[in-house]
């Protein structure tokens, strides 16, 4: 294949371009926005959580999790770190296996890619939103005011989450041109809504807690991490992870002191005469005391089993990734379309989403490598 067009200048598109350019292929990288890697620059709360040391397929959701596992086995977290460090920089894991640049700056990761693409002589077209693709022995890509021909196309234009970064879901139509279908789309890694009356007094409080998602009384997910109360619900690392499982009608159960047993809590509360000082942050303690005074439970039950109804999520505008997309079953082992030879996919446009913790960027890098391998084998 002579000329490859990559649609989308995010993490997957840039990574795929680097692999192909290093192999001596001619690449044109087309990005609808004015800058490459805008979403990458915001990842990990701006600190750049690029992968996770435990990147098994168990951390992903897809119509073909086994294929996800095979692709990750070919390009896992070690390969991702090696790939990134081949461009410069140092990447280190934290205690939970989340890998960050040593400087903890996501925008610097984007800068690494930009510098590498420039050194490789990449042909980058910014402000170019591909609106149609046709095939007549080769691909013709068209956009307002221009078009190009290509021997292969990598569709890496993202999903529907975080439209402020230019990922509004319009790229799905390019795949549907060739007969591809879409699984249902929904926001993932997103804040959850609850009854404002239950969270208003807690707004702004962040705490390390244990979180469970209950459905008809049974636990369908549990984790530990940050819980941040907002004006209409909850956010934070633990909530983002839970959002992949929680549905409207479920209940969140929060343990504010997961390292302390109920008996010890009861003794401390009795000793202090009903105070929660040095047990939870003062603002949270005051709110729980008021709730207990109003008859909404004992202090111990409120500390260990604080419940909130799930009323929904905060939508694609506030989501980090998209659940759903082009089914993996409509691709081969290198993510080439089974409906049109020469059309490849990478990143969030596929029906693959991971838990919070670097898993989605790992998929971006692994899928980009798989697509590049497929092109190089043709």
Topology:
Elements: E1 3-7, H1 11-22, E2 26-31, E3 51-52, E4 60-62, H2 65-74, H3 77-85, E5 91-93, E6 98-101, H4 106-119, E7 123-126, E8 132-135, E9 139-143, E10 146-150, E11 152-155, H5 172-176, E12 186-188, E13 192-193, H6 196-199, E14 206-215, E15 218-229, E16 233-235, H7 237-242, E17 251-255, H8 262-271, H9 282-293, H10 299-304, E18 306-309, E19 312-313, E20 321-323, E21 343-345, E22 352-354, H11 359-377
Parallel strand pairs: 1-2, 1-11, 2-7, 11-21
Antiparallel strand pairs: 3-6, 4-22, 5-6, 8-9, 9-10, 12-20, 13-16, 13-19, 14-15, 14-17, 15-16, 17-18
Helix pairs in contact: 1-4, 1-11, 2-11
Describe this protein's structure.
This protein has 378 residues and is of the alpha+beta class. The protein folds into two domains: 3-184 and 325-377, FAD/NAD(P)-binding domain, CATH 3.50.50.60; 192-313, Translation factors (Elongation Factor Tu (Ef-tu), domain 3). 28% of the residues lie in helices and 25% in strands. The chain is built from eleven helices and 22 strands. The strands form six sheets. Strands 18-17-14-15-16-13-19 form a seven-stranded antiparallel sheet. It has a five-stranded parallel sheet with strand order 7-2-1-11-21, with helices on one face. Helix 1 packs parallel to helix 11 (359-377) and helix 2 (65-74) packs across helix 11.
Largest sheet: 7 strands, antiparallel
Number of domains: 2
Could you tell me how far the N terminus lies from the C terminus, measured between alpha carbons in angstroms? 7 Å
CATH class category label of the largest domain: Alpha Beta
CA-based gyration radius: 23 Å
């Amino acid at each position: 294949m002579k000329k490859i067009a990559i649609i989308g200048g995010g993490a997957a598109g840039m990574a795929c371009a680097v692999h192909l350019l290093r192999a001596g292929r001619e690449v044109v990288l087309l990005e609808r926005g004015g800058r490459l890697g805008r979403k990458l620059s915001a990842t990990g709360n701006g600190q750049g959580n690029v992968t996770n040391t435990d990147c098994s397929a168990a951390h992903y959701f897809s119509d073909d999790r086994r294929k996800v596992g095979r692709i990750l086995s070919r390009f896992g977290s070690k390969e991702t770190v090696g790939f990134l460090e081949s461009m410069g920089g140092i990447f280190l894991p934290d205690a939970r296996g989340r890998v960050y640049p040593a400087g903890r700056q996501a925008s610097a990761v984007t800068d690494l890619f930009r510098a590498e693409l420039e050194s490789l002589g990449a042909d980058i077209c910014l402000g170019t939103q591909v609106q149609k693709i046709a095939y007549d022995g080769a691909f013709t890509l068209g956009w307002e005011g221009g078009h190009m021909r290509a021997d292969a196309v990598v569709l890496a234009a993202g999903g529907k989450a975080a439209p402020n970064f230019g990922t509004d879901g319009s790229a799905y139509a390019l795949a549907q041109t060739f007969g591809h279908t879409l699984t249902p789309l929904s926001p993932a890694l997103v804040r959850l809504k609850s009854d404002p009356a239950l969270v208003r007094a807690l707004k702004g409080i962040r705490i390390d807690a244990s979180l469970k998602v209950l459905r008809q009384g049974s636990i369908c997910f549990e984790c530990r991490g940050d819980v941040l109360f907002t004006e209409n619900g909850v956010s934070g690392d633990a909530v983002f992870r839970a959002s992949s499982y929680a549905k409207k009608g479920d209940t969140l159960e929060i343990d504010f002191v997961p390292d302390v047993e109920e008996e010890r809590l009861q003794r401390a509360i009795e000793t202090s005469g009903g105070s929660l000082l040095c047990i939870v942050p003062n603002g949270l303690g005051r709110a729980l005391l008021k709730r207990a005074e109003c008859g909404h439970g004992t202090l111990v039950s409120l500390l260990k089993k604080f419940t909130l109804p799930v009323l929904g999520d905060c939508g694609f505008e506030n989501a980090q990734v998209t659940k759903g997309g082009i089914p993996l079953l409509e691709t081969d082992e290198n993510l080439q379309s089974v409906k049109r030879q020469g059309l490849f996919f990478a990143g969030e446009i596929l029906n693959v989403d991971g838990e919070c913790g670097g898993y989605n960027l790992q998929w971006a890098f692994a899928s980009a490598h798989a697509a590049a391998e497929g092109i190089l084998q043709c």
